[in-house]
């Protein structure tokens, strides 16, 4: 459905071919941390308890037992419904993304697009049919944005690479034809807040999750395509207020502002996220893709015009900064 749009097709082309060289340059920058992806099966058969047990395992995808059950799910059969879980894993640096992790986030989105594009009839254990994508952070936080050391040592060319690559990656993610969920158990700051704007749903721990478009505090403007998506999420007026103020939103403030779709009781965000996955993936996939296409149509048309402006503003802000 979405793939029929020429803009979306061009994006996929950029992601898989035009960005390859840039992606490898970013990967060569190295850095700590990694971006992990796991495929998790959603079982429909069996009693509620089994489903609950199954989804409970999924919510601890970092624990060994969940990985085992995930691995088992992938090996045992061609899963009817598959969740791709992306984990930003750099907890010692609040899951800030270094060059290597930016490239690996691109790998993860390429995996999602690859699963999305395949013919459902050709689904196999190795390439099952994608039903939903969850993106989360390891440890206490969601994502603290770009690694500040990466930015401080970046040349103008490196900044341009990151800018162009992350616009492609995050816009591809935003235009996936399946539901996407940000699982927020901590802070989403700067580029981390921009990653939140690429998701359809945001399940946030009401006690621990926060979001801050901190750019103006650092003399920057959004560099990962977050401005246009923020406007699409909350409207131009509220978007400009969030960007100009660079204020920290608590989970409750963010929910009232339209930045977080779901508030979960303290410690229960993984369970609430798994319940949302169950709900969304029990609906007709083609109807979901159509709903996304309808909601994204205007965003995509305006994005083609506004994207260059967002990039130009980041580059001039980056040039002004004396890191
Ligand atoms: C183009 C990208 C650009 C954009 O478009 O937005 C950016 O993303 S620029 C970066 C914007 N991000 C920030 O400004 C976030 C800065 N960090 C924080 O505000 C806080 O760390 C936090 C995320 C709110 C978490 O606070 P807290 O829980 O108190 O933890 P610490 O502050 O002690 O951090 C733990 C640890 O992580 C390191 N850290 C945090 N953020 C980054 C970062 N962006 N890059 C590199 N390292 C980061 C922090 O230094 C601590 O490490 P140690 O000092 O070694 O303990």
UniProtKB/TrEMBL annotation:
Spans annotated as Disordered: 37-82
UniProt main location, coarse: cytoplasm
The UniProt record lists the keyword Transport: no
Substrates-to-products reaction catalysed: (2R)-ethylmalonyl-CoA + H(+) = butanoyl-CoA + CO2; (S)-methylmalonyl-CoA + H(+) = propanoyl-CoA + CO2; (2S)-ethylmalonyl-CoA + H(+) = butanoyl-CoA + CO2
PROSITE patterns associated with the record: ENOYL_COA_HYDRATASE
GO biological process: fatty acid beta-oxidation
Membrane-traversing stretches: none
Record keyword Lyase present: yes
Keywords assigned by UniProt, alphabetized: Cytoplasm, Lyase
Molecular function per GO: methyl/ethyl malonyl-CoA decarboxylase activity
Alphabetical list of Gene3D superfamilies matching this protein: 2-enoyl-CoA Hydratase, Chain A, domain 1
Gene Ontology, cellular component aspect: cytosol
EC number(s) from the headed UniProt entry: 4.1.1.94
Biased composition (Low complexity): 58-78
Family: Belongs to the enoyl-CoA hydratase/isomerase family.
Full protein name: Ethylmalonyl-CoA decarboxylase
């Amino acid at each position: 459905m979405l793939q029929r749009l020429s803009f979306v097709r061009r994006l996929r082309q950029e992601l898989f071919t035009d960005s390859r060289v840039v992606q490898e340059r970013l990967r060569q920058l190295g850095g700590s941390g990694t971006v992990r992806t796991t495929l998790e099966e959603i079982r429909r058969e069996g009693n509620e308890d089994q489903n609950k047990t199954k989804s409970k395992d999924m919510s601890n995808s970092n624990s060994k037992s969940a990985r085992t059950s995930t691995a088992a799910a992938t090996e045992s059969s061609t899963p009817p419904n598959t969740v791709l879980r992306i984990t930003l894993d750099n907890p010692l640096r609040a899951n800030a993304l270094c060059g290597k992790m930016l490239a690996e986030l691109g790998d993860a989105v390429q995996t999602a697009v690859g699963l999305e594009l395949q013919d459902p009839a050709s689904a196999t254990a190795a390439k099952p049919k994608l039903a939903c994508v969850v993106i989360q952070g390891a440890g206490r936080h969601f994502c603290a944005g770009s690694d500040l050391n990466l930015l401080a040592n970046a040349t103008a060319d490196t900044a341009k690479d990151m800018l162009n690559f992350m616009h492609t990656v995050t816009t591809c993610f935003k235009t996936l034809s399946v539901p996407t969920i940000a699982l927020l158990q901590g802070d989403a700051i700067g580029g981390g807040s921009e990653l939140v704007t690429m998701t359809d749903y945001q399940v946030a721990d009401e006690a621990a999750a926060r979001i801050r478009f901190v750019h103006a505090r650092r003399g920057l403007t959004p560099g990962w395509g977050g401005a246009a998506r923020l406007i699409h999420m909350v409207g131009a007026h509220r978007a400009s207020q969030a960007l100009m103020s660079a204020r920290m939103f608590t989970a409750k403030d963010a929910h009232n502002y339209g930045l977080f779709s779901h508030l979960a009781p303290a410690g229960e965000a993984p369970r609430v996220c798994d319940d949302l996955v169950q709900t969304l993936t029990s609906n007709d996939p083609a109807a979901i893709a159509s709903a996304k296409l309808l909601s994204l149509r205007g965003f995509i048309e305006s994005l083609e015009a506004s994207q260059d402006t967002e990039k130009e503003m980041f580059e001039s802000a980056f040039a002004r900064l004396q890191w």
